[in-house]
Amino acid sequence: MINKPVLMQGNEACVEGAIVAGMRFYAGYPITPSTEIAEIAAEKLPKVGGKFIQMEDEIASMGAVIGASLAGLKSMTATSGPGFSLKQENIGYACLTEVPCVIVDVQRGGPSTGLPTLPAQGDVMQARWGTHGDHPIIVISPSYVREVYDMTVRAFNLSEKYRTPVILLMDEVIGHMRERVVLPDPSTVKVFNRKKPDLSKIAKYNPYEDVDGDGIPPMANFGEGIPYHVTGLIHDITGAPSTSPEVTAKLISRLMKKIYDNIDDIVEYENLFTEDADTVVISFGSTARSVARAVKILRKESKKVGMIRLKTIWPFPHKAINELPKSVKNIIVAEMNYGQLIETVEASSKGRHNVIGLNKFSGELISPDEVIDKVREVLKNA
Length: 382
Known about the structure:
13 helices, globular, Rossmann fold
């Protein structure tokens, strides 16, 4: 398969990337349209010495992933909207306890059971704020099957590097689409492993002590002879629960800063024809494919239209908006939902642009023609 073109499904590419990144544990519960990820992981993980467990539900799946990661295994789970909702309490636990793990959400129509086999992008805000309290989160979104492979590797690398859960936010189209893919030689793929404590340099291991000043405490593995306490309560550097206002403020601030101080490393986006544009379309996931096609057609008609494709959704890439040229008057936010990202774009724009939504929530893709029609409407009314 390596260096040879293959016809590969997005969900399959996810597993291939995860295994190359070092995933050796998967716990999950079947749910359309992510089930192929579990099926392929069940087949392939034992071949590389890994473990697959089908749990009784999504809450337990997330708990098993956290436990396996604490024991030193790179761990992943996959789900869709309803299961993603059930995982949220334990995602919050992983955020506070700083347990690296990857959660794949292959989005479908909702709310509730909704449209299990049809596409949507309705989990954008759930990915950011699904669990309670103030917490950072990294959410990345692929638009192509090969990119699923690359972004799954990146999800693990970011998770290990920053000791945090990372969400790979796909949609049904990307998960089930098959494209011609050439995978790299695994030996050429850059893989990041979590920072471990150097016991020769410290008198005592405190699991939440920022010993290097980068906001990321070294992480020992359970079972390696270094006992420590892990709790979902606010805790001090030893892991012991605390209600101290000073301890609380310091912990939450560090959790946030370790992500937001590294925005340039975490955030990725792609510009197309924005250098002279008067109208820019912002999109992500499968919608970005339709937008790219529409923009190229409009350019042939001499329309000064560009696009920003968000590869990282959270933290939101405000820099992408701030760096737009002064010629940009209109921003169209295209997404398969009722309008989840538009307010964030408006806040980032700070009144400099006319921000309009292009939203579709019927279980159908946003087509290139619909993007073209919306651009023409905006330019006509400008």
